[in-house]
Each structure stands twice: as C-alpha cells, then as structure tokens.
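Input record (one chain):
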Amino acid sequence: MRMVPHPLAIRASLLAAVAAAFLVGGCNVGPKYHTPTTQVPAAYKEVTPESAKDIANWKAAQPSDEVIRGDWWEIFNDPELSALEGEVNVSNQSIASAAASYLAARAMVKQARSQFYPTVTTTPSITGERQSSTLTEFNESGVGGTGKNATGAYADYSLPFDATWVPDLWGKIRNTVNSSAVGAQASAADLANTKLSMQAEVAEDYFQLRSQDALKQLLDATVQAYQQSLDLTKALYETGIDSDEPVAQAETQLETTQAQATNVGILRSQYEHAIATLVGQPASTFSIPMKALSATPPPIPFGVPSELLERRPDIAASERLVAQANAQIGIARAAYFPTLTLSASGGFQSSSIIDWFTWPSRFWSVGPSLAETIFDAGLRKATVEQYRAQYDETVANYRQTVLSAFQQVEDNLAALRILSKEIEQQVVAINSAQRYLNIAMDRYKLGIDPYLNVISAQTSLLSNQQTLVNLQQQQITASVQLVEALGGGWTRAQLPSPGQ
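The corresponding structure, as predicted from the sequence alone:
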C-alpha cells in the first residue's frame, strides 16, 4: 500500500527548502569588481610657467567657484549663443534619441529586478466536451464519467493559480540586476556625452558662422577701399597723367575681391543650416542675423589631470561598461550550479458550475524541483571565457578613452598657447602691411612707382587680415573644444545611483 504524505509534512519540507535557499542566497560566484587602473599624469604638459605668459585665458581650477558649471557656454558672454544652446537641450533629436535609450535602459533594470519575486499566473477556462458514444467505457445509462449526461457531453470549469519562484542561490539574478543597473548608468553617461557634443557643436558652428560674418565685413570694407583706388586710377588716366593699364589692374582686383565677398555666403549658409538642424528646426525657416565675431576666449579653468576621470561623461560611460562586463562573468559562472525552482498551484475545478467554487472542488499541489546540467560539451566553460574576453576588451576601451581624453586636452591647450602668440605676431604683420600700402600708394601718386606695387601691397594687407580672422576663429573654436575635452560642467556625481 502506497503511503500518501501528510499535507503538514509537505509544507514542512517546503519551508525547509525555502530556508535553505535563503541561507545559501548570500553566495555570489561572480568576480568582485574593481575600477581598472590607468596612467594619470601629475600635470598637463602644455601648462608651464613659461607657456602661461603667452596666453591670458588659462586658469587653474582654484578656488572651486572657478570650475566650469553646467551652462558652460555662458562663459563666452554671448546671449545669442546662450539662446541657441537652450534650444539644443530641448529640441535636438540626437539628444532625444539618447534620452529614450536611457529610459529603455532603466526599464531593463526593472525587468531584471522582477526576477527576485515569484511569478503568479492564472488560466481560467470553461470547456465543453462530448465523447464518442461508441467508446467502450461509455454506457448508455450515462454513468461512464462524472458529470456526463446521456449523450456523453459534459463541461469542465477550471480556475487554477500557479506560482513559481527561482531563489537566487548563486547570485545570477543579482548579477543580472547589477549588469542592467550599471548599463543604465552607462546610458545616462552617454546621454550626458551626447548633450555635451551637441552643445559644443552648436558653439563651434556658431563661432564659425560669426567668423564668416567677420570675413564678409573685412571683404566689404576692402571692396570700398579698392573702389576708391579704382576711382583714383581713372582720374589719373582721364587727366592724362597715367595710362589705362592701372585702371584695368584696379578693376581686376576690385572684381576679384567682390567675388570673394560673394563666395563667403556659401559657407555661412552651410553653418546656418547646420545650426538649424542641431536646434531641431528646418533649415528653410531658420536664420541668424549677420554680426561679426566679437567674442574672445574666456578664462577656462582646466584643473589637474586626475579630475578629468570624474568630469568626462564618455570616460564614465566606458568605465560603467567595464562593470557591466564584470557582472556578465558572474551570470555565466552561475550556470555551473543547480537551479532550484519552488512551484505551487491550486484553485477550483468542477464539472458543474454550481459546485465550481465550493470547498470540495478545490485542488492544490506544491513542491520544489532541482535542475542541473550534467554534460554540455564545454558550453559553460566557453561562455565564461567569452565574457572574460569581453571584459578585457572593455578594460582596453576604457584605458583608450582615458588616453584620448588627455590627448584632446593637451591638443587644445597647445592650440590656445600657440594661437595666442601667433595672433600677436599677425597683428604686427598687419601693421607692417598697412605701412607698406601707405608708402606704395604715396609713391604711386607721386609717379615714382607703378600701380602694380600698390596692388602687391593691397594683396599683402588683405591676405594678412584674412589670416588674422582665421586665427581668431581657430582660437575661439579651440576654447570650445577645450571646454568639451574637460567635460563641460558635468561631474560623475550626476550619474544616477543603482537604486535610482
């Protein structure tokens, strides 16, 4: 005779299994995470007492109120730029895409956390069925089965509830949650980096556009000066003092410069269209009034190299990906250990709707089950090796990101230092070119030298003036790029915590 376990004994065994699960639940077979080490220089190479004399817009990040703030573009003191940056934060589609990606990453954390809890399902059903009257087990009196009528038809009313729970014995769920959480942090850092990139791109395009306006202003002024020179050659020609050759030369130079002034409109329009796209507006309905570049590079607090690791969102994102890869190793290792599943089901079932919810119609079952892979031909080992290699890959990417960050800071510090000195030299060259033009013009008026000397002097002056405009544009752009390389006003403290 088979002995049926008493329900109390079943429940006791179930409670023992649950208790064992909680006792072992503290195990985590994944490796402990440590932030990868990387080389951090003690100081920036381009910042020396000697180089500081060549540039006025370098500033150490002390005291703390001199560090770059969130709205970093305000240091340029340009209201039009600030207005554009405000539109970027709201309407830029790349930022909107990164924000949606971050929200999706947060949702994945919630999905992973749901595995900590049991899953409860129900599948209520009402089934009508008629059996064949030719079955040998069916008799004409209709007593061949409970609830069957004389025709062999009956109904089944069922309301089952099923509960399943897999305790986190080896840390698989915890590592999954951790992987999703640090992945969400990486996504948040990516969002911050996208914002910074778009903001910097708007600033760069804006100053490029203003530089084109400055170049157009210069060429327009030069056209007026060349027109005066042409009028002079015509007057001398008409009075018989000079020939028609200087007139032709002056006309050629004037028309060439007019063409250059017209050509500036192409690049300016392209920068304007690029800004429209960045601020989320159609290029056809967007315009920026002309105004020559007037902003000068502001003092930029660059701090010390060690602070860069906490201020660059791309570095933070890369480091969080390392932590995520580390958690994936723990998930893969958990596959070596058995999986305990606690299941329970119960409900009401009857062939009569009247008796459906009565106490005798109840049913239930409960019990644990254990699953373990005995042979997989090296699948689990290969999976762990895969995630270890991916972890090493993320470490290398992180270190490369740090190296690139230091390079970008040094590049822009060097650019600012050299451009500052070059602009001073260029101003001296313009003064010399202006003096050369004045002498050449006086000698031409006196009939000592031909007009070709005047044209040579005018060409030299315009070339040097154009070079100065380009150097000033490079300098202000390098300032924007330095702010971007320093991480803008972002800090690692702005990352959401795993709990958030």
